[in-house]
Design brief:
369 residues, alpha/beta, Arc Repressor Mutant, subunit A, Rossmann fold, six-stranded parallel β-sheet, six-stranded mixed β-sheet
Length: 369
């Protein structure tokens, strides 16, 4: 075995680092990856070739970039009276698949999109939306605003008054005082959580943990869905803990994960549902560094299934219907443009639970003959 194989990161760690760098920067350089990971150029290029085969990046001279639909032939831009404005919190990781599906659906129906990226740290998305409507003349809006922003109530009130049709994507909102709802399409995260908890309890796990990213605007609703699923499946509230940790790229993440693993040992917890893939990979890798084995010592389910299958072991994951969400968002908006008087629609699309190697019965549960 080579010195590199002994000292270097595991393949899933290397590839997760590459995808995280792409999420952050939009491109990676082979020279930087060699320095960051401490492996050879051959190893880096082999990993990039594998990830390109998965459709997650495109190799270019000296590195790799995120390509979207670069493998598709170029087509002439369709003519539309006015474009559709799209505002999402990130143009990396979860959202590219959703946006590409929106673009394909809109193009097939004679429209084009104008994309604007916000940020999970954005304080006032209303400025961008007003500019898109008032200066750029959007025919409609598809948006994923920060629901935990102090400006969100003002944004919702503006949407209720503006004459431009709009659809929320992966977000829901209603208006006070009567609770009138805004049109929306979401993946059913409560169902995804229920699927994960049912699978773990069915395997024999009784003490479970939910791990959330501190950056996620959905953490509060995800925690509520977790508590509801656990209670509905007969798990004791004392046996189902919730923990938030920093983003996997944060320097504070390793200490938070170490504390999480201590909590699991002290409580006797044997399974985790982790939002999302990067945090799940970080937990598994840090556990392995401590001599723990997944799923022998504890089972793990990731939420999102962007890179969960690249881990070692490959992670069982909840997979949201990202492409269907994007298509449905455009369809809702175009139907609203065609018929402004139609009833408000709120669509909730079901995710899948993809079973892989990271979940098994807890070791203390006797197996049937």
């Amino acid at each position: 075995m080579s010195d590199e194989a002994v000292r270097g990161p595991l393949p899933a760690t290397r590839r997760g680092h590459m995808l995280s760098a792409l999420e952050r920067d939009g491109a990676v350089r082979v020279a930087d990856l060699i320095e960051d990971l401490g492996v050879s150029a051959v190893t880096v290029r082999r990993d990039l070739e594998l990830l390109e085969g998965e459709g997650l990046l495109k190799r270019v001279h000296g590195g790799a970039v995120w390509t979207g639909d670069d493998n598709e032939p170029d087509e002439p831009e369709p003519v539309s009276a006015a474009p559709i404005g799209v505002l999402v919190p990130s143009v990396y990781y979860y959202w590219p698949t959703v946006v590409r599906a929106m673009e394909a659906e809109a193009r097939s129906r004679g429209h084009r999109l104008v994309l604007r990226g916000s940020s999970y740290d954005a304080t006032d998305e209303l400025v961008t939306l007003r500019r898109m409507v008032e200066r750029e003349g959007m025919a409609g809006l598809i948006i994923a605003p920060r629901t935990d922003s102090p400006h969100f109530p003002e944004l919702v009130a503006w949407l209720a008054e503006v004459s431009v049709p709009h659809v929320l994507v992966e977000r829901e909102a209603s208006l006070a005082p009567l609770g009138d709802v805004l049109e929306s399409v979401v993946s059913n995260r409560a169902l995804g959580t229920l699927m994960a908890v049912r699978h773990l309890i069915g395997l024999g796990h009784r003490r479970l943990g939910l791990v959330l990213s501190e950056r996620s605007p959905r953490s509060a609703s995800d925690a509520h869905d977790w508590q509801t699923a656990c209670a509905g499946l007969g798990a004791s509230p004392d046996d189902c803990f919730t923990r938030s940790i920093p983003d996997s790229r944060s320097p504070d993440c390793p200490a938070a994960v170490a504390d999480l693993l201590r909590t699991m040992r002290q409580s006797g917890s044997t399974a985790l549902l982790v939002h999302s893939d990067p945090e799940a990979l970080t937990i598994v890798q840090q556990a392995q560094a401590q001599g723990l084995t997944v799923p022998r010592d504890f089972s793990v389910i990731a939420y999102d299934d962007e890179i969960a299958g690249l881990a070692s072991p490959a992670l069982t994951a909840v997979r949201p219907p990202r492409q269907a969400v994007g298509q449905a968002a455009v369809d809702l908006l175009l139907r609203r443009l065609a018929d402004p008087a139609r009833p408000v629609h709120r669509l909730s699309l079901s995710p899948q639970l993809v079973l892989r190697e990271s979940t098994a019965a807890p070791t203390e549960v006797a197996q049937p003959n």
